[in-house]
Input
Amino acid sequence: MVRVTLDNISKFFGKVRAVVDLNLEIDDGEFVAFLGPSGCGKTTTLLMVAGIYRPSRGRILFDNEDVTDLPPKDRNIGMVFQSYALYPHMSVYDNIAFPLKLKKEPQREIDKKVREIARLLRIDELLDRKPAQLSGGQKQRVALGRALVKEPDVLLLDEPLSNLDAQLRILMRAEIKRLQKELRITTIYVTHDQVEAMTMADRIAVMNKGRLQQYADPQTLYNKPANIFVASFIGSPPMNLIEGELEAPDDNSVFFVSSGIKLKLPNVPPNVAKDGQREVVLGVRPEDLQMVGPGDADKEETLEGSIYVVEPLGKEFLINVQVGDHVLKMLVPADGMPEAGQRIRIRPNFSKIHLFDKKSQKALL
Ligand SMILES: Nc1ncnc2c1ncn2[C@@H]1O[C@H](COP(=O)(O)OP(=O)(O)O)[C@@H](O)[C@H]1O
Ligand SMILES: [Mg+2]
Output
């Protein structure tokens, strides 16, 4: 168990800036996810922690030791790849035992550790099989077993569940999380799936185009996204984001204005509008919009629109509402059956709205 520090690391491949000036601290025993779209630099960062890539600049520390120049074999890491990379000619037992044999541990010690880890991962019935005789989920467990058997200081997982079907992914998600909490191994988990990151990690490093966007626990990312990228990437169905302007006609009120929309924002201090006008993006999550009756709310604080289409989700309806030139998604309890074309009035939960500066893309509230 160690604390991992990424001290301003970058990685360039010729002209490609895969990772740029990344600063990150992963605590002892913490489970951190690297989250972002394909190509944002997640795997490159993981391979730098593993020692397979050397950073173009910057340092990597394990506790207080600078490991930047240490080869992988001297870092005591366990790694699981998307492809599992099991040895096809070896049994499950030998696959798991392999790292210990490399370290020339005594046979009795190896046998004890292999059986222990196999029991923990519930594959102790499969030790004699070859990888070709295993299901995807079982192969995944063997790969995990091989990474864990040498009791690594740091566990590195690169999209380990992406080859599994949806149900098995949900199952393995919980298993890996439980295992990590039990063993308390400092863990970095790479994924492009925000649900995986949100459900499993203590903290999430959201990356885009090689740069860190925000590093926080799941609830903070959800409730206080630092910029438009994080706001749009976290949450399903995604946040409604509307481009427009803030207008402060006097010192007491602020309006958000966009084509076909004029909405009073009671919770926003007028000085956010700067000199009375500012280009912004308004963000509202689908669950933070609700339908209101004609007399239920101050008219200036509501939007009028018509139902474009209704998507039943079982417990809830996802209602697409046409408001001016925009289609907003609204999540409401499934009750009756709203009809396409119906005129409705909706009101945001103003304590939960987000405002971003259009130019800097950063959160304003
Ligand atoms: N060995 C390499 N040579 C050249 N470019 C690379 C290499 N590895 C990764 N890249 C580039 O670096 C960027 C980040 O890649 P990667 O870290 O694999 O992204 P992710 O894992 O987030 O999908 C991409 O633009 C990718 O094409
Ligand atoms: Mg990758």
Q: What stands out?
A: Helices lie at 42-50, 92-102, 107-120, 136-148, 166-183, 194-200, 218-223, 228-233. The CA atoms of residues 334 and 345 lie 17 Å apart. The pocket of magnesium ion (ligand 2) is lined by residues 42-43 (CB under 6 Å).
